[in-house]
Each structure stands twice: as structure tokens, then as C-alpha cells.
Amino acid sequence: MSRWSFVGRTDELTRLLAAVHEGQGHGLFLSGSAGIGKSRLLREGVAALPTDRYALSFVAASTATAALPFGGLAPVLPAEQPPGLSPAGVLRWGVEVLQEQAAGRRIVLAIDDAHLLDPPSAALVHLLARAENTTVLGTLRSGEQIPLPIRALWTDDLVAHAELAPLGPRETTGLLAAILAGPVDAGSAERLFRLSAGNPLLLRELVLAAATGGELVRTYGVWRWTGRLELAPSLTDLIDTRIGQLEPGVRAVVELVAFGEPLGLRLLDQAADQADVEVAEERGLITVVPDDRRVDVRLAHPLYGEVIRRRCPVSRTRRLKAQLAERLELVGTRRRGDLLRVAVWRLDSGTAQDPALLLHAAVQAFTRYDVPLATRLARAALDADGGYDAAELLATILMFGDRPAEAIGVLDAVAGDIACEQRRSRWLTVRGMVSYWGLSDESTVDTIAAAGQSLSDPGHQARVRAFEAIMRLHGLDVDAALRLGRSVLDRPAASVAARELARSTIAHADAVRGRFRASATAIDRVQAEAANWRVDMPYLQLAMELARGTRLALSGDLAGIDAIAADEFADQAGAGDFRLGTGYLSILQAYAARLRGRGDDALKASLDACAVLATSRVFAGLAHAERAQAAVLRGDVATAVAAMAEADRTQTPGMAVLQPWLEQARGAVLVAGGDLPGATRHLCELADRLRADGFAGHEVLVLHDLVRLGQAAAPVGPTCTDGNRRTVAQRLAELSETVDGVLTPLLARHARAAAERDGAALLEVADEFAKLDLTVWAVDATAMALRGWRRDRSTSAAAAHERLAALLTRCDQIRTPALDGLRPTLSDRELEIAGLAAAGVTSRAIAGQLFLSPRTVENHLQRVYSKLGITGRGELGAALRSIPGHDGGRTR
């Protein structure tokens, strides 16, 4: 574990330094709770100040020096005071000493924990703050008694005073990555942020405890917290200090809230003495917050609950939870989630006797995608003689908790309890789902198809057919999938869940075939019926998201992908450890970041997906394929090759519908490895297979990859009646008439402009790509235009250089074949001379600096102009900025 780094606080640090550099008042004091990062911010600010301009003094007040006269400033004052001075004389002496030590520089006095200053030190600080050449900086702990001379600093407008807020989610994630020397998966970062409430000290203690206890694991380079919280003694002591000694009544209030939060204020007032509730709120142990028409009570800090719950004896814990359940049952479980809370309290208190309550609560937890809680409740329902219904639910949840073998065991144990067709159809579909996707048994689809034929009820048969349809689609039998899906929609007896599962299958098939409008309409219909299928089939959400994500990715709708990532399902999946959901959404985010040219973000999101899906093989192959694509964009060939190998290893036959994405990634990896002919051959063959399968949506993107490789005129497809094969550009023109949306016509224009080497048309296409946020494609189109103009020494090259440079500022450091083809073969000396010339240095000055003759410098510059396709210095800056890795004046 690396040193605890200083991360974030950019605005606060800027304000701190501005108080010194810009003379804004006479200083700045920052208040905040313990561990919020005040001291570190103050130290970083002081360390950033040059000692040749400022006389820097840093002191840390403490309880040990608070009773000693000038104890707080002892480190900066002489050990002996002149004898016989009055109190006022001593203060003047202190000011004079610091002025002498400054030797004409501006005095900067920084005081950490200024609330602990002894009275004489506080008075001296106040006097110093009045001097024109002095800046006073300091920190204060919120809630502490502040010496009057220090408080007067801002009440008299001598210094500014600000409250230091907790770290935000992004800053917390950055801090975690810095301390662990690697990225942390989004779910773990969010949970640690929530527990620490943005307090760096508490976050540090949490991470140290998790690391010591082996609860932080690293998978594919991404750290992931298991979720098991170990509280180190230092952390427990810290929380104990904040909570303090509690009277029995106040402790009862805090314990009730710890086990029941969020707890309705009305319910708490009934369960505890109102006076004790008020005391707990006054002491900052609980907070009262309005929530719609209800007023809820929560603990003031999440870690208070962890300590309180662990310290509470088992017998009292069970009694309190039983009391909470009884109270809520008395007032009525009228609010969403109340039934779930009662079931958990009953289960934890050992008073759960109703399997129906546990079963309904498990369903509710699963509909919220809280897989661990749903598993626990469903297992309890089964143990309480919940019968077949509990077993079916438990097996389903186990499947989505990456435990398929255990799920099969649960189902087979109740096979003898199937006494009706309804149960038979449900048992067949759940067991088929577990076997097909969980255990990768391809024969499952034929097995359930045959078993489904024996069902006589049309509604029950429709449920089996809906599952068979999606399995056929995932196995690339698209025609059968569409036939089965439509037959389900044609059956009035089909349940809502069966119909919408079939509709999701059709929507996915329409997306890969390029029928984006029909796909969108179907997905909207499935979403509109969510309230009617979620209880019966909550995992249908995943099928719908796969269909929707496929459509958005194939149509280049990056804004639509952003909307999915911000949707409620994303939050629920992350909070509930629904890994298939969070993993797939991370893949989509990686895809969008890659097309925007944000290679670092793409790699992080794809690594998150790989780590989350490490124990599941449903989307694992796709995650590694996207990781390979991100690595290619960043020019990391070794990582790309390794990721592609892992994609092949983890891809399953039951997810063959995702294979086009893997094969597209393989083409990119071949190019990155230098095998352009092999990549071209592979992509042409892939395009032919996709054409034969009717996957026009995928075919379009593969053909565009060929265009970006400079292969717009390459032959693809079967031989036509004229004895020739269509070119990539011609095939894209054909597809632009049948594939929905604005993207395919734009890709066809790109192909045509590339084939005709029409620079102006390429720039027009680049502008359209940029409007869609497809920055990498805009870069490639611009690079193609520029390469032609450089070759022809066209005057149009100058404007293209400017446009390419502007596009590259929107990207990370990226590499594409088009950019590589544009990269000039300039020597280090030529780049150095060009950078100096672009920065405005004259040829004579460059010659003197590099010990060359002016003629030699000019000769080098002429060669640079020739290779860049420009005419002189006026175009040099933009031309250099259009070279990845160069800023126009200095190489990176």
C-alpha cells in the first residue's frame, strides 16, 4: 500500500494559496470535523510556497500546550523571553522577533488546530494578523470552543473563514486509487464513500482494516472490496470518542436507529422516550430528515451504526429488532419497503414463523436487485417450509449470484413436488435458465423445447417458448428465435412476463439486423409493462437492457448509453451486488468512452466490468473484448493481446450472440500487432458471415472498421451478376438504404469519400461524427483528409491541421491506424527544432541554443515543412499539435 496521497481539494488549495499570493485579506481559516483533511490541506498549501519569498512558520497547537503561556507558538519563538516585559510588551516582542526572522520577506504563519491555542498565543496571532506583511492561515475543529482573539480574526474581517466540506464521490475514488496504487471498482468505491461519508481519516482506517483483514482483492488490476467490514481498534476508538458516554435512554434511542434506520420519527417516539430522542439529536448522534410526507431518523454518521451494532449484546439486539417489527406491524406496513424491513427484523430476531412473509420479502428484495438479501430471505423461506415456491425463487436468485450448481441442487430437490402444469412450466424454465447460462449446457434448449410440447395449457406453454426463443437467439438461431417470440405474442393466454420476454428477444434480434426503430419501439413497450412483470420475472430487466444496449451501441447513440448508466436500474444493481447488471452497464460505458477517444476511462470501465464479472461467464467474454479494444486505442499491444485471449477463454456458446463484438475486437488487436493484411482478411470474412446471418447492424460497423484501415475499395460479399464483388464502400451504400438511423448513411459517406480520396468530403463527414460525439471516427476521417493533402502539398492542409489538433484535445493519448499513417518520420532533432520554431524562437536563436549554423536550422525546417505538408512557420504550431503526443511547442 502506497503513501496516503493528497488528492482533490483543488479549489480549496487554490483559495489557500490565493490568500497568500494575492493578498486577499490577511489570511484564511478552515473549519471542519475531525479527519476531514484540514491539517493535510494546510501542510500542502504551506509546502507549495517558496521560501525565498515567504518566511514560513508552521505550528500545531495541542492540548499539551494549551495550558502553557505561548506554548502554541513555542516552535517559532525564542526559548527565552526578555525579562521585565509587561504582557503587552511580550506581544510586541513576539511580533518583532518574527519580523526579524523574516528578513524582509512576507510572513506566513500557519496554525493547525488553532482552537487549542493558549490565550497569549491566540493574542499574538491576532496582533500579527493586523500587520500588513503577514498572512495567517489556520484550521479549526467544528464544535470546539474557539479562543476569542482567534474568533475575532474573521468577525473583524482580518481573515476569511470557510467550512471544509467532506470529499465527494469522485475525490474519494481518486484517493482510493492513489493509496492502493490502482483503480477501485465503482461499487466498492461507492460503498466506502458512503461509510466514510467523505472523511479521509475514516476512509483511511476503513481501507487499512480491509487490507489487513484480506477483504480487498485485486482482479484484472482492479481492487474490489468484499463488503465484509472489519473495524480496526483505532477506528473503533475514534468512533467511541465521537459518540462519548451515553445515558441508558439515549443509548436505547441510538441503538433503535442503528438497527432500524431509516426509522420514522413517529415510530421512534413510540418506542423510546421523546426527551432522549431530543438529547440524541442535540448531541449530533442522530439526524431528523423529511422524506415525502414522512419524517425519518438516521444516524449522524454511517460508522456510528457499525460500532453500535457490534457492541450491542446478542440478546438485546434480538429484542430490539423484534420490538421494531412489532411496532411497524402495529402502525401498518403501508410504505414501500416496510414489509421487507419487518421480514428482516423478524428473521434477525428469531421470530420469523411465517414463510409467506419471508417469501414475499425475498421477492421484493430481488425486484430491487439486492441479490445477497434476496438469497438470505429465500433460503429462510425454504427452511421455514416455504415449499416449491421458495425453492424456485432461491434457485433463480442463486443463478444470478453466480452459484448455478447450487441452484440446480435446490431445483432437483423439489422436482417431486411438481403437481401441476403451472409449476412444471416454471420449473422447466428456471432449470433451463440455470443450465443454459449458468452451466453452459447447450443441449438445454432442445430439452426444454421437447418438454414444453407436453404442456397442454397455452399460457404455460408460452412461458417455455419465450425462454426457448431467447436461448435460440443467444445461440445465433435468429430465425427460430423470431418465430418462437412472435408465436408467444400471438397467444392471448401468455402471461405479461412471457410476452415481454419474447418482445425483448425480438427487440434484440431487430437491433442486430439494423431495424433500430422497431427495436426501440419494442423496448419502450417492455419498459412500460415493467410494473406487471417485475415481480414474476425481475431478471427480464437484463434481457431488456441487453437489447437496448445493443441497439444504442450499433446505432452510435452515446447519449442513450449515458442515460442507461444514469438510470435507476444502474443504482439498484450496484447497491444490490447484481453483478450481471453492473458488469454489462460498465461494458457499455467503456464502449461510449472509447468512441469518444477517452481511452483511460474506457480501460477503467472495462476493467471494472472484468473484475465484477470474474465469477460469471455470461458477459465476461464481452468485457475482455472491450478491454482489448480500449488497450488498442491506448497503444498497449501487450494488454490488448492478453485481453483478447481472456475473452476467448471466458466466452461461452450460450452467448454466441455477442461473438460479433469479440471478432471485431480481434481485428483491432491484429492491427495493433502490425498484421494489417491479417486484420483486413479477418474483417472481410467477418463481414461476409454477418451478411449471411442477416446481422446488418453489426456488418455496418465491421465494414466501417475496414474503411478506417484504408480498405474502402476492398472487395466483400459474394460475386455479383457482373462477375465482380462489391467494394466496402458500395456495400455500405447498399446498407444505408435498409439500416435505420443517421449513422449508416454517414458511414457510407465516409467510405465513399475515402475511396475517392475526397478531402473536403472527409472533413464534412468528420464534422458530422464530432456532432455525434464520435470523436475517434472524426479524428480518423480528418487524418485521412490530411494525409492526402500532405502528399499533394495542398494549401488545404493548414486548416485540416487545425481541425485535427482541436479534435485531439478532446481525447486522451490515442492511437489509430489513420493517425499512425499520418505520423511523420521526423528525427528527434527535427522535432526539437520544429518545437522551438513553433514557439516563436528565431532560427538564429535556435542555432545558438543547439550549436548549429542558421543554414542547418533552416534546412531542417524545410524538411519538416515537406514532411508535414505545410508551407511555413505560420502553419507549424497546428501541424505539430495534430501529431499525437506533441503539444505544438514541446514534445510530451
From TrEMBL:
GO terms for cellular component: cytoplasm. Gene3D superfamilies: Winged helix-like DNA-binding domain superfamily/Winged helix DNA-binding domain. GO terms for molecular function: adenylate cyclase activity; ATP binding; DNA binding. PROSITE patterns: HTH_LUXR_1, HTH_LUXR_2. Keywords: ATP-binding, Nucleotide-binding. Residues 819-884 form the HTH luxR-type domain. One of its GO terms (biological process) is regulation of DNA-templated transcription. This is ATP-, maltotriose-and DNA-dependent transcriptional regulator MalT. It comes from Micromonospora matsumotoense.
